[in-house]
Amino acid sequence: QVQLVESGGGLVQAGGSLRLSCAASGRTLSTYAMGWFRQAPGKERAFVAAISRSGDSTYYADSVKGRFTFSRDNGKNTAYLQMNSLKPEDTAVYYCAVRSWALYSGRTYQGANEYDYWGQGTQVTVSS
Asked: By C-alpha distance, which of 41, 42, 19, 43 is closest to 96?
């Protein structure tokens, strides 16, 4: 069992930056493949970014590629999503997720149903 707590959301102007954190307890994050997803009002939860179990591979949705960066600090057992050049369409609740089992250490996962543990989410609002 792993518990995830996101933080770092807030209100920011377009063009600004935020860094979301996903703190884990119960298990070591470095042994898991992880993902970030977001859900805007009235929309389905959407993939944002993923990191492989090994940490060597990352994958981003086209809409955030070049602006967002997924990283992990194994010493703090925390994952981060650095978000730069934010746009109003980035407004959503952001969730981190963990996949409890991954055969291939270098593989990333983009489907929400491929993850087993989720945080409670943190709100990001980007004003124009």
From this structure: 19
Q: Are 121 and 7 in contact (CB under 8 A)?
A: no
Q: Which two tokens stand for residue 33?
A: 């493949």
pLDDT tens digits for 33-87? 999 999 999 999 999 999 999 999 999 999 999 999 999 998 899 999 999 999 9
φ, ψ for residue 39, nearest 5 deg: -140, 115
The gap from C-alpha 113 to its chain's centroid, in whole angstroms, comes to 15
Beta strands in 2-128, from DSSP E residues, in sequence order: 3-7, 10-13, 18-25, 33-39, 46-51, 58-60, 68-73, 78-83, 92-99, 117-118, 122-127
